[in-house]
Amino acid sequence: MRPDPDLVLLGARLLDPGVGDLLPHTSLAVAGGRIVAFGDDRDMRALAGPRTRTIDLKGSVVTPGLVDGHLHPVHGAELTDGLDLSGCADLDDVRAALAGAKRDLAPGAWLRAWGLDPNVFGDRPIEAAALAPVLDDVPALLQLFDAHSTLASPRALELAGVDGPRTFDQAAEIVCDAQGRPTGLLLEDAACELVERAAPQATRDEQRARLARALYAMAAAGLTGGHAMDANGDSLALYADLDATGELPLRLRVAPWCQPGADAETVRHLIELQGNRGTLWRVAGVKLFMDGTVDNGTAWLERPDCHGESTHAFWPDPAAYTHVIGELHRAGVQTATHAIGDAAVRHVLDSVEKARGDAPAGVRHRVEHIETVPDDTVRRFAELGVVASMQPTHCCDFTRADHTDNWSRRLGEERAGRAWRCRDLWDAGARVVLGSDWPIAPYPPLAVMAGARHRRPSRDLSLPPHGPEQALTGLEALRAMTVNAAYAAGEERESGALAVGFRADLSVFAENPAEVPATELADVPVRLTVVDGRVTHQEDHLGA
């Protein structure tokens, strides 16, 4: 006899994005973390036993579990522990927020903040002097929204012993004035870490608690999984710890980093890490960087930006990157490369093409971000089978339709006019996967899908969209966080659809997310979230 199901969901509208319509059922049953049956409410009630948890969804819409295609859970939980500056519209707002936080600081404590938008500086340089005298006498680290640059106060620089320029093995810079004195702006990890190391560090218990809070908040927003791009430091140990105690509410596919300078031993270690796993997490793939960001002048562009910057690759020797891609490809390891500028994206595609020519293998490589690319690059994604992993909310909230924002001004009209080409990539046959890049942008998946459709600033949806011709439809956006996310992970035979035998990773909403108007989608209530057959979030009114 078949054992009683663990969970039965009744009174549902079942939406399979692959089919593109509602299924002819109102209920489903789950056992052992898998969907085991569909039917009407009467059928499923008959299956339920004394230990079955039964929930009446009262007409809510069930979809395959939404998966964020690119997020940084551990780094994000650490980063967002400080003052949130993302709502500040100008320097006066920033100064006021910092002054308020400073009043609450204990003597000698560091002031940490995140989400600082470079647009608040207008035409002024991004430097600590712009925030004087508020920060002059306290050690402070203000992370810019791109998480690739930090503004350090004079006191923080002093405590870290940073008093001039340095040379790094990767693209990074301590920005200095004409006299060689640091301005406070630190570009890329190698420079930021010099000051970060001087600040007080969180304990392991604090890290664990922050991560758990962040992940449960994601589950409450409707996420069932994520492609986590942070396996450095204690990340894997933290995931394993939460998983072992039943406190991991998301299914995580984790990609460790490979930085410039990686030798053969480093690459072998990355290959050996593949397949390490727990119940709800596993190492799968490797994350690399081909450039930085447009906003701080560290992207890799085919032509310099308006300041003459963004002309270099993150790997000082791009050929070394190509070699690493080839080694990982031969080992059957998927790569996910951060590539924002047109030159960076082109080089990644060239490297994948070379790897495929040297050693044919069915590895689904990925490019992350893809913020501006020309036509001839768009078509190559489908030709090479490369997944396009994109975050359109960055376009919504960090650029403007009139191109007066920092990102657009740096690129100029031509390149700013080809921003986040989701529609063109989709129509060209590429597999487009959507994500948030949290903590760079908010993680609620309904907002991510909404942004892919309306492309408007989330703070004011009455403003015009940036590149409306690049919008996705409601169903396409849903597929990009279900069907395509499963494909990108090589899991399309067990995830991304509502089917018997598939994982019981489910997201449940008050309304159909494929049909709700784009500007209303972010506000649709999340009724229930289920991961591996276990309820990780439930609205009170649904009952037991």
UniProtKB/TrEMBL annotation:
Q: Which CDD domains match?
A: YtcJ_like
Name of the protein in question: Amidohydrolase
**InterPro entries per record:** Amidohydro_3, Metal-dep_hydrolase_composite, Metal_Hydrolase, YtcJ-like
Q: What is the lineage of its organism?
A: Bacteria, Bacillati, Actinomycetota, Actinomycetes, Kitasatosporales
Organism field: Streptomyces venezuelae
- Annotated Amidohydrolase domain ranges read 53-537
The GO terms this record gives for MF are:
hydrolase activity, acting on carbon-nitrogen (but not peptide) bonds
Keywords, A to Z, come to: Hydrolase
